[in-house]
Structures are given as structure tokens and as C-alpha cells.
From TrEMBL:
SUPFAM superfamilies: ClpP/crotonase, PDZ domain-like. The keyword Nucleotidyltransferase does not apply. Keywords: Hydrolase, Protease. PANTHER family: CARBOXY-TERMINAL PROCESSING PROTEASE CTPA, TAIL-SPECIFIC PROTEASE. GO terms for molecular function: endopeptidase activity; serine-type peptidase activity. This is Carboxyl-terminal protease. It comes from Litorilituus sediminis.
Amino acid sequence: MKIRTWVVLLLTTSLASCINTTKDSEFNSKDSWEELESVLKQQYAYLDRPNLNVQEVFTEFKARALATKSKQEFADVSQMLLRHFYDPHLNLGPYDENDFSVFPTGSDISATYKNNMFIIEDIKADGAADLAGIQPGAEIITIDNLPVKQAVEKVFGKKLEQLSLEQINYGVNVSLGGYRNKQRIIKLKNHDQFKTYQLAASYEWLNAMKNGPTVTYKKLNDIGYIRFNNSLGNSKTVNAFKEAISALSATNALIIDLRNTPSGGNTGVAEPILGHFVDKKTAYQRYQTQENGISYQEAHMETAYVEPNMPYYTQPFVVLAGRWTGSMGEGMTIGLDAIGAVTVIGAPMADLLGGIKTVKLVESDTWIELGFERLYHVNNTYREDFEPHIMISPADRDVNGNDPALSRAQQFLNELVVDSM
């Protein structure tokens, strides 16, 4: 019986080997590269990234791509290429266990490179890093047992000295998110003390949140507070927000918290929510669409509007935004600013660029997700250039475990209400 099993295994292995050989023989790196390059140049609206020589990057990665021998090798090289644009909306799949978690969804630590050190600037509220007691201000020493500089170099496939500051900052934050569904090991230095943290996979907080409420709300004395729980892509959020705004209709002011929206969402959820703050059709953002043969610079500027939705909230409101405000969360932030928010408080947002679509890449059997619509505030400034009016860093968690942005918002609104009396 054992002999027969062994023969079957040999035959199965041989058959699989033949299938894989046939599959690899069908792969054409030249055709695959030409398809990827064409899609990026014709349909990606953000090729002109600051401090990035696009043609130089294409030339370098063309050579790397042409040297690949399989679809998997080509996908790995292509992902490395796309990271050079430091755009969390620019992704290539399908993913496997050796790929990084998607940023910023798979992120709970925000870090920056300064004075030749990698410093934690913010911690995502209730994420694994927050629960482990990691604090802003700590210096990152290693990520998954690699010196942090080497961890960043692994993201891009080149030396740190060849990267811009924007790329370095993007790379360290991608690396901190770890690999898909895998635990992370991070060594930090804080107040001359070294400590190693073993953190849960960065997606675990997201999975735990799926069965919870799409929004949470409460009264903070006479101020209403509504927080989105990474739910701007869930149609149930529309009615949940209506319930919240109805319950808080008698408050003197309102805080809308968009700091937990890293996965973005869609306008079908966002627009009805924005509608509670207007009493007539109102513009909330502008956009240009990149199309085949027409660059976004030449495309007609369009305007997106929101219609009134009851109940109408008439009191002053402020918006909280930060490192984990992404995509549609960013769109709602600039939209709320456009339609009447008194102010926006927090840290710079995640900069997920543009309105996105997914394009199938036939030659390499992959897909690419990219921003084909360039998005603008109604004042015609780029969405990615928008920053909170009252800047706070950290915005999610300070060194004492408190919520600095929420505290600042309460202070601001209390002073505003007193001044108006």
C-alpha cells in the first residue's frame, strides 16, 4: 500500500511539474512589461509625483521586469516598481503570504525619518501597537529582525541613499504593517531603554471590527460625537449615521471623527451623509478623469454635488482627520470642509490618490488598482495637499495614552459656543 502511494505521489509531482513548466513557458516578460507600462502611462493620473524621475524609474524596472522568468517574479518586481510612487492607492495583485499588508488598512504605527532616525509619530487608537503600549516618540531599531534601514530598502529593492524622503517615509510605514496575516516583531528605543514587541498581524483589528457597529456616537456634555469604524464602504453606514445624527440633533455642536477610515469607501455612502449638513444642492469636490489618449491635465474639470438629506443638522460642526483617514475618508474631510465645517483638526491624512479603478493585466495574469480620477477640493487645490486647519501630532494617541485631537476639538467647540452667547 505504501509503494502504491509513493508511485501516485511521483506521478502527481511529475504532472504538476509539467503543468508549471507549461505555464512558465507561456509567460512573456516583454509583452507583460509593455502592457503594464502602457496602462500606467495612459490611465494613471498621478505619474507626476513630486521628487520622482518617472522615466528613470521606468528604465530601471523595465530591465528588471524583462529579466523575470515567471508571472510570480514579474508581479514581485511590478509591486516594487509601484511602491516608488508612494501612493497607497496604487497596488498590484493577486496577493500572497509574502506580500506586505495593504497600507494604510494594514497599519497601526505611523513613523517618519528625521535626523537619520526612524521615529514613531502616532499610534492608531485601539490597534495592536496601542494595546501593547507603544508610544509616539520611540525610535525604531529593527522590524522583523532587520535593521530598519534594511527593512525600508527591502520595500523598494534599492539602497536608502537612492530614495527620496517621501519614499523613505512611505517605505517604513509599509514595512511596519508587516506581511499579510503575519505577526510582527518590532524593536524600539525609548528613553534610552530598548524593548522588543511582538504584535498581532495588522489586519486583526479590521477583522475584529467587522461585526461591530459601523458608527459609534455619544454626547460629550452638550457636544455630539460620531466616529466612523472603517465603514465608508458599508451601505448600512448611511442609516446608522442618520440614527446618530437624529439622536444628537439637540446638541450645541458636533464632532465628526474620520480618523478610522483607512480602507476608504464609496460616494454611495459618503454623499447621503454629507447631505445632512446642507439645505440645498451643494458642491463638495471636483475631479478630472484620465482616459486613453487624454491626460487628466487636458480633461474637463467636473464638479460633484451633494443633495440635502433629513434630518438637517444646523449647529456648528468640526471634523477630525489623521494618518488613518484614507481615500473616501479624505474625500469626506474635504467635502465637509467645503460645505461648512467650522474647522478640521488633526494630522496630515493618508494620501490615497484619486478615484480608483481596477484594470486586468492579461499578459501577466495580474491586476492593477490605480487612480484614474484626479481629485480636488472645491477651491481647486489637490485633495492630497489638504491639511487640517488645526494641526496636531500625534492626533490619535499621545504619550499618556490620551486622545489629543478629540480633546482639542472639545476645547475649540466649547470656546466657540461661549463666544457666540
